[in-house]
Amino acid sequence: MERESWIAEHLPPPLASRAGARGSEGLPPGHGLLQRCTDPSGKSLARGCYSFDLAPAAPGEPPLHFIALDTAAAEGLDTGNLDGPEWDWLEKDLESHSACAFPPGEGECRPTGGRFHLIVVMAHHPEGSLDNTAPRTDGVTQHTGAELRELLRFPGVILFVNGHTHTDSIEARKLHREGGRRCPSRPRKPLLEGGSNP
Q1: How far apart are CA 47 and CA 30, in angstroms?
Q2: Any idea what DSSP says for residue 19?
Q3: Termini Cα distance of the chain
């Protein structure tokens, strides 16, 4: 099955029928793919990536932003990657949902112009399985898990959820930079009336 056909099968039936698919009535409508990743001109990318927001859990708390990556490599094989257009979209999406980010290499957290969100990134492949660098004939750049780890330098990224290996594990990460420097994000508010955050 081609990627576009697979995506069409997840869209609501009226939209799916335009692509010759039956579609799905599942929730949320389009299974998230109605907010599909796009290039700067607004055209949907070849990959089935998307993102969406959830309202804050309580007044004064930051909103949640979810990013779903399509790591299934066009070259096939069981390992994955991110292609150049999806990579560019991911970086812009992270910047627009972050107050600041650590630059590659050394340096203080720099403002991005975005609004602070708590960010959850989701993908099928974990970092260690994002290593498909099989040659491509179209010249599209491929990005691996090591590069993704560097891109997740945005302090609002609180979780990277993935599968593929069929093992249960949780890996804690240290702050992106040594010395405990943090990105200025939002005012710290008391958790409870009269209390304070640790």
Answers
A1: 15
A2: G
A3: 51
Angle at 128 between CA 78 and CA 143, to 5 degrees: 80
As a whole number of angstroms, the distance between CA 161 and CA 123 comes to 6
Cis, bond preceding 28 (omega within 30 deg of 0): yes
CA quadruple 102, 107, 108, 111: dihedral positive or negative? negative
Could you give the strand order of the β-sheet that contains 118-122, starting from the edge strand earlier in sequence?
50-54, 64-68, 118-122, 157-161
Cα distances (Å, whole numbers) of residue 7 to 11, 23, 79, 173: 7, 9, 20, 33
Sign of the torsion angle spanned by Cα atoms 110, 112, 118, 120 = negative
pLDDT of amino acid 70: 92
Using a pLDDT cut of 90, give the percent of the chain over it.
Answer: 24
Residues of the chain under the 70 pLDDT cut: 1, 105-106, 173-198
Residue 52 host element (H or E): strand 50-54
Determine the pLDDT at residue 78. 83
CB 61 within 8 Å of CB 39: no
Amino acid letter, residue 167: T
Alpha helices in the chain (DSSP H): 3-9, 13-16, 84-96, 145-151
Question: How large is the C-alpha radius of gyration of the chain?
Answer: 18
